[in-house]
């Protein structure tokens, strides 16, 4: 055996190095292909005439984009979780404003109750979640800009199926379920049945956890309790997303994200965010919630429940977001 390695060892090592190099090249090429496909699939600008500029950037490989990436200035991002069903208009189930500060690796997230009563431009006053049905993400963005007197720079939407698949691909999320959650509504295929205790939730269970509000067996939760669970899941997914497991599953995650996300972030901006938040320094997520009171008011001849937000609370959240965006 010793003579064999003396005679053929160098040749085997050279062949091995070539095989490894080919493997690395193939992996990088595939990653580049996936990245370009993903960013083109999910790019959906709210204003017409911006697609051409992205296509010019989209011809670059991820490595080139990363090499040229400059840290983005702080910006305000609208995050929408949508319930898309076959043959139906997408409905906004979750709405958040994120003050993203790449140089500090910080994100300040403010959850907006979906029943918040505000002016929807061109549609009059109504619940915020109706804006999605009336005019999609563009109207949601315009409504919140008017409500807070702030400019929202970018938006991103993810549908329920994409959320389920991301959680499953990451191997689930560990959550302390604080009470029994059971609710059934055959009309929209809702069957929630979670038992209390520390456990790893799969994609469907995690979705049930963040959607649960009505109950078959006890008191119903408030929207604030539901929002708190949404924020808890966001933090759990961020922790998972920075793990070694997420790196191993990167190609699968790209496939999912390309099919279930829509955003007006360009590939250059995405590359810059990956570079900033992929740094070894820990990222910081802080959460807050727009608060008010649920009241019954007459609207279009119907007495319904709406979430009314005082001017002082609106000013508080506006100031908080502005401070989080200071360079």
Can you describe this structure?
The chain is of the alpha+beta class and 327 residues long. Helices cover 47% and strands 25% of the residues. It is built from 11 helices and 14 strands. The strands form 5 sheets. The protein has a 6-stranded mixed sheet with strand order 11-6-1-2-3-12, with helices on both faces. Strands 4-5 form a two-stranded antiparallel sheet. The chain has a two-stranded antiparallel ribbon with strand order 7-10. Strand 4 (117-120) and strand 5 form a beta hairpin. Helix 1 (2-42) packs parallel to helix 9, helix 5 packs across helix 6 and helix 6 (203-211) packs antiparallel against helix 7. The radius of gyration is 23 Å and the shape is globular. Residues 8-31 and 52-58 have low confidence and may be disordered.
Short description:
With 327 residues, the chain is α+β, with helices and mostly antiparallel strands.
Give a topology summary.
Elements (H helix, E strand, L loop, with lengths): L1 H41 L8 H8 L3 H7 L6 E9 L7 E11 L4 E6 L5 E4 L3 E4 L2 H19 L5 E6 H10 L3 E5 L3 E5 L4 E5 L2 E5 L1 H9 L11 H19 L2 H5 L1 H11 E3 L3 H11 L6 E6 L3 E7 L2 E7 L2 H14 L3
Parallel strand pairs: 1-6, 3-12
Antiparallel strand pairs: 1-2, 2-3, 4-5, 6-11, 7-10, 8-9, 13-14
Helix pairs in contact: 1-9, 5-6, 5-9, 6-7
């Amino acid at each position: 055996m010793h003579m064999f390695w003396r005679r053929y060892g160098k040749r085997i090592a050279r062949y091995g190095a070539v095989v490894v190099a080919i493997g690395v090249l193939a992996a990088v090429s595939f990653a580049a292909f996936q990245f370009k496909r993903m960013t083109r699939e999910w790019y959906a600008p709210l204003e017409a005439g911006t697609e051409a500029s992205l296509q010019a950037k989209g011809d670059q490989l991820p490595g080139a984009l990363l090499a040229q990436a400059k840290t983005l200035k702080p910006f305000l991002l609208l995050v929408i979780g949508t319930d898309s069903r076959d043959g139906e208009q997408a409905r906004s189930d979750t709405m958040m404003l994120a003050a993203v500060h790449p140089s500090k690796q910080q994100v300040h997230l403010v959850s907006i109750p979906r029943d918040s009563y505000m002016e929807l431009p061109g549609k009059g006053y109504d619940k915020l979640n109706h804006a999605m049905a009336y005019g999609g993400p563009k109207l949601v963005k315009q409504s919140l800009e008017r409500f807070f007197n702030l400019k929202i720079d970018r938006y991103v939407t993810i549908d329920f199926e994409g959320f389920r698949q991301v959680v499953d691909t990451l191997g689930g999320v560990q959550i302390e379920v604080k009470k029994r959650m059971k609710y059934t509504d055959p009309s929209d295929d809702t069957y929630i049945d979670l038992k209390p205790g520390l456990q790893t939730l799969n994609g469907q269970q995690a979705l049930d956890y963040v959607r649960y509000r009505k109950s078959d067996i006890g008191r119903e939760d408030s929207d604030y309790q539901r929002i708190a669970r949404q924020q808890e899941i966001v933090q759990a997914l961020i922790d998972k997303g920075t793990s070694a497991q997420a790196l191993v599953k990167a190609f699968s995650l790209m496939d999912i994200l390309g099919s279930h996300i829509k955003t007006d972030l360009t590939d250059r901006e995405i590359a810059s965010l990956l570079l900033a938040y992929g740094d070894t320094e820990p990222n910081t997520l802080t959460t807050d919630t727009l608060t008010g009171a649920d009241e019954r008011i007459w609207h279009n001849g119907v007495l319904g429940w709406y979430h009314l937000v005082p001017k002082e609370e609106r000013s508080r959240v506006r100031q908080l977001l502005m401070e989080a965006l200071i360079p």
